Amino acid sequence: MITTDICIIGAGPVGLFAVFEAGLLKMRCHLVDYLPQVGGQLSEIYPQKPIYDIPGYPEVKAQELVDNLMEQIKPFQPTFTLGERVEHLNKQEDGSYILVTNENTQIHAKVIVIAGGLGVFEPRKPALEKLDYFEGKGVTYMVKNPDTFRDKKVVLAGGGDSALDWTIYLSNIAERVTLVHRNETFRGAPDSAAKVFDLANNGKIDLILSANLKELGGNGQLSSITLEGKNKEEIVIDTDYLIPLFGLSPKLGPIADWGLSIDKNAIEVDTRDYSTGVERIYAIGDINTYPGKLKLILCGFHEAAIMMHSAFKYVYPDQKLSFKYTTVNGVNAF
Ligand SMILES: Cc1cc2nc3c(=O)[nH]c(=O)nc-3n(C[C@H](O)[C@H](O)[C@H](O)COP(=O)(O)OP(=O)(O)OC[C@H]3O[C@@H](n4cnc5c(N)ncnc54)[C@H](O)[C@@H]3O)c2cc1C
Hints:
Blueprint: E1 2-9, H1 13-24, E2 29-33, H2 40-44, E3 50-51, E4 60-61, H3 62-73, E5 79-82, E6 86-91, E7 97-101, E8 106-114, E9 120-123, H4 131-134, E10 153-157, H5 161-170, E11 176-181, H6 190-201, E12 206-209, E13 212-217, E14 224-228, E15 234-238, E16 241-244, E17 248-251, E18 262-263, E19 266-268, E20 281-283, E21 288-289, H7 297-315, H8 326-329
Helix pairs in contact: 1-3, 1-7, 5-6
This protein binds flavin-adenine dinucleotide (FAD).
The site of flavin-adenine dinucleotide has 37 residues, from helix 1, strand 2, helix 2, strand 9 and helix 7.
C-alpha cells in the first residue's frame, strides 16, 4: 500500500505543477498515469511543438516544459505509478480514500486530485480474431520496459511516430524487429522514416509495407502472425511479440462511474476551489468544466494553486494555513 497526503490522477502538466503547489504547503503527492511516461498530452501528442502562451516563456517546446516541471517539483520528491489506470475509489471511515489501479496497486490518500485531462488514452486496437486472448501473452500496446523485448522477435505495426521511434529503438535490443505498415509512406517525422528505411536497407530490420495484420497464431502464447500482402498473398512471421501502435483515443474511463457530476465528458467543479461535489475530491486542468472554462495549460496551473490551498484543511486539520510568497519563504525541500 502506498501512503500519501494527496494522490493525483494524471501526470500531465497540470498534475505535475500541482505537486509544486502542494509541496509549498508541505503536502506530499503520489501521481498515477496510464501512460508509461509523464507529461500527458504534451509528451504523448506534441513533444516537439513550440508553445507560445506559457507566462514567462516566449516560446517553449512541449517536452522542454514537461522536463522543467519535473525539475521544479524535484525538491518535493513526488512518487509515481506509471503505466497503470486508476479504476476504483474506496472511501474509508475517516474520510480518506484508497485508490486501486488496474494492476491492483493500492494508494491511500487524504485527498484525491483528478488531473486526468481528456481521460485515459486507450490504444486503438486492430480488428483481429483472438486479439483479447493474446493480450498479455505476446500482444501489447505499450513499451513500458524496453528490456522485456531483449533478444526477442518483435513485430511492430503502424505508420506514426510511435511505430517509427520504437522500431528504431528496439532494433538495438531485440533479436529481430519487423515493422508492418499498410501504406508505402509514413505519417511520422520524415527523419525517423528515413532512419527506418536505412535500417531496412542495411538488413538491420525487416520492413513490410502495403500489408495488413490478418491472423494471430500460438498455443497459449503468441508465436506467429499472418499478414495479407499487396497482392492478397499471405505472409507468416514467427514472433514473440506484436506491438500494434495505431494511435491512442482518449476516454473518460472509470472516473465516469465515481458519482461525480459530469457534463460532456468533463467534471463539473466549484470555481471557488475546483472541488467536485464529493468531499476531498478535486478536479483540475482539461478534465474539469465550469462557466468560461478554457482548456489551457496556464488555466490548469492557476486551478492547481487554488485547489491545494483548499485541500490543506484535510491534510492538516489542526493547522491554520498562512499564505506566503515563494520570494519570502523560498522552496523548502522535503
Ligand atoms: C496539438 C495540441 C496543441 C496544444 N497547444 C497548446 C498550447 O499552445 N497552449 C496551451 O495552453 N495548451 C495547448 N494544448 C492543450 C494542452 O495540451 C492541455 O490543456 C493540457 O495538456 C492539459 O493538461 P492536463 O494535465 O490537464 O491533462 P493531460 O495533458 O491530458 O494529462 C492527463 C493525464 O491523465 C492521465 N489519466 C487520465 N485518466 C486516468 C486514470 N483513470 N488513471 C491514470 N491516468 C489517467 C492521462 O493518461 C494523461 O496522461 C494543446 C493540445 C494539443 C492536443
